[in-house]
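Entry:
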Amino acid sequence: MDNWNSQSGDIEWVERVYELLREIIRCSLSEKPKMPDNLSQKALPSIQKIQSLQQRPGPQVFQSSSPTINDREWLEQVRQLLVEMTGAALSERPRLPDNLASRALNLADKAKKIKESIEAYSDRVPPQAPHPAPPPDDRALAGENEHSLQSPDSLLDLLQQSLKTQRATSYNPDANEWQQIFTLLDMVQSVYRQIQR
């Protein structure tokens, strides 16, 4: 993917997060504060995208005109808020997190600045011609085929092992959210096994 396409995708994604944060603000400041509709369906893809963005090398995640914007910190704060809200939405008694409106407003302001900074940078840098993708090596293809042939049950087991590893290295391994994740995963595995009978 060339530089311009990457920046364009980043701008669109930051805009979607900005809109989600604005929806959270509206819902939390309404007469009867509530969780946004379909929050988990909106938040989970963003949480996954954040995790992949956090893998990008360098001090900044996005190529922008302002090196003073700490987009890594912003990404982590957005991820934490979405994880916290998703956990609350999935609990037996959904309850809005503390200081939700002010946290979301602060993150929305930063999202707007990050978006503007990426746009300013992309306006200054001319688009590069796309480089042809190198052909995949046989080992990568073998790995893909291996994963595509695995059963959902074994993939769920892999997910559980991966989550256990992540939990062990987490800054807060005793958080209730971890238990919620493992409980949900157990439910998914048991429902899948019932379907297979």
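The two ends are 44 Å apart (CA to CA).
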